[in-house]
Every structure is written in C-alpha cells, then in structure tokens.
Amino acid sequence: MDLYEVQEATSDYSGVVRTDRDRPVPADDEALVRIRACSLNYRDLAIASSALFYPQTDLPVVPLSDGAGEVVAVGDGVHRLSEGDRVATPFAPDWIEGEATPAKVGRSTGGNVDGALAEYATFPAESLAVLPEYLSFEQGATLSCAGLTAWRALVEDGDLGAGESVLALGTGGVSTFALQFAELHGASTVVTSSSDAKLERARDLGADETINYEATPEWGQAVQERVGGVDHVVEVGGVGTLDQSLDAAAFGGHVHLIGVLAGPGGQVDPSPALGKALTIEGVMGVGSRAMFDRMLRAMAASEVEPVVDRTFGFDEVQEAYRYVEGGEHQGKVVVTVDP
C-alpha cells in the first residue's frame, strides 16, 4: 500500500515523503480501514516543520490524525463494527469514554503512533466513530481534531446553551466549527480575522458580529463595546492573543485555551480573569469517542456540513502542507487518498 511518512522535520515539508509498506492486518481488537480522505491541522505542520515546536517522538511517523474511510476487515474479537461501515479515525485512540487521564491521552494518532495519511490503517475498533450517511468522506475527514476540539470546549466543557455568546478567533478549522456549533445551539457569535473577505464568509455562515483585528488591535474592548462581552472565547492564538481574549470575556465567562497560532507574546495581565471571575480551561487530548458520537448525533439532527476550503490529491501532500501554512484557508484543507 502507499502512504506518507514524516521522515525528517524540514522548513519546506520536503521531509513528508511518499513511500510504501505491506498492508496491515488487524489484531483481534482492531479494524482495518480503507482511508478515503484526510485533513490537516496546525499540529501536523508542527510535527513536520523544523521551524515549529512539537513534543514529537521519534520519526518516521505516518502523519495526520483526521481521516475517514470504510472498514474492510475486523479482528476476531470485534463485534461493534463490520465490513462496509463508514468511520472517522481517532485522535486519542485509547480514550473511549469518561474523563481524560494520562493513560487515555498518552497516544495520539499521527503524533507518537502512525496516523491516517495512508491507503489503509488499523485502529482499535472501539476508537472509531461511525459517520452519518449525509457526510461525505471529505467532510468526515475534518472532524477528529478540529471538530471534536470545538465541540468539547463549547458543549462538553462549556455547557453551551441558547442565548449565550461565543467569540471565535480567526476562521481556521476549530474556529469555523465553533461558529457552526454556536449556531446549532442558538448562541450568538463574534468572529475575528485580518481578512475582510473571510469575515464576509463568516457572516454568510451565520456570524452575528465580525471584527478585523488588524484594523482594530484592541478587539477585546471592541467586543465589550458591541455585545457587552462574550460567555465563551475559543482561544486558538495563545499568549499572543490571550490578553485580548480576557478583555473580551463577560463576567463569569469561559476562556477555552486550545492553540498557539499567534506564537509567543509578552506577559499576560491576569487582572481581567480575577475581576470577572473567569474560568480558563485548557483543552487537551481533544475528546473521547463517546464525545465524538454525541457530536455526530447533534450534527446529523440538523445536517451540519463541515466547511472544506480546498481539496488536494494524494500526490499533492507537500503542497497541502504549504497551503495550510500560508493561512489563506477558511475551514479545513483535505487530502483525498486515491493513489
């Protein structure tokens, strides 16, 4: 079978190399999946780039946590899945249900165990979420990291409800899913971006307020002035944006710490967190399969469709990495696996 490995971390992703291996055989508790599509996350860039930091284990590794395909074989001990089931791959293959523990999140697909950028891959059968029929493989391949992260932050951890408000930083995968899940739950939304074109698209997707953060550097105060603060901030920037996110949050609000896209920044003043009694939560390990199942049921009830910005072919993987790094995408970038 054909697959890709991150063989070396480089500045131009030339270390992401197409190669071949024997097709794997599922163990007694595993399912063999014919992967049809995958999608990229910022984490995948960090693993493959010499310019970014990721607490990486030894290379080579098959990259990408997010994939979708159909089950083609199962081990002797598997009864939950059968041949032909359409499934999404797991980020944390050992976290099936319950609270996160070091053991449950110790292994991560595409990080310290082989991922989904291959024709075929095996996973613990209990870790695979079954896709609703209305989703294509390309759409299903966007969910494992970005979709489940946004869902867990807002719904599982944040208990998002109708009438609340959500601030999504940027228009990448997590933030776009946050906008969609906020709409799904009857919450109002604010979206930031440096691109007016992306903000227009966000309004088309349902954003109630948009702010160009280059034109309005103090966007946290702008959020306060426009909507009186927000109940939830989906914070994907890290230290570089956290001070503004704290300013944007309403009294008693939640700041969900997810990413570090803005890179390093200066010191963060904790006064807004203290003065407004904010809850600041780190979202790690993405989510369990049980959370994934709940997310899929909620999406299917309203047929929420993930936003796919662009699709690359299996021979265009390095180009896909560079496109994501360029930051021009809105939503998710997908690679079809059809050698």
From TrEMBL:
InterPro entries assigned: ADH-like_C, ADH-like_N, ER, GroES-like_sf, NAD(P)-bd_dom_sf, Zinc_ADH-like
A single GO BP: small molecule metabolic process
Domain Enoyl reductase (ER): 11-335
Source organism of this protein record: Halomicrobium zhouii
Protein name, per record: NADPH:quinone reductase
Pfam families: ADH_N, ADH_zinc_N
SMART domains xref list: PKS_ER
GO molecular function, one term: oxidoreductase activity, acting on the CH-OH group of donors, NAD or NADP as acceptor
Domain of life the protein comes from: Archaea
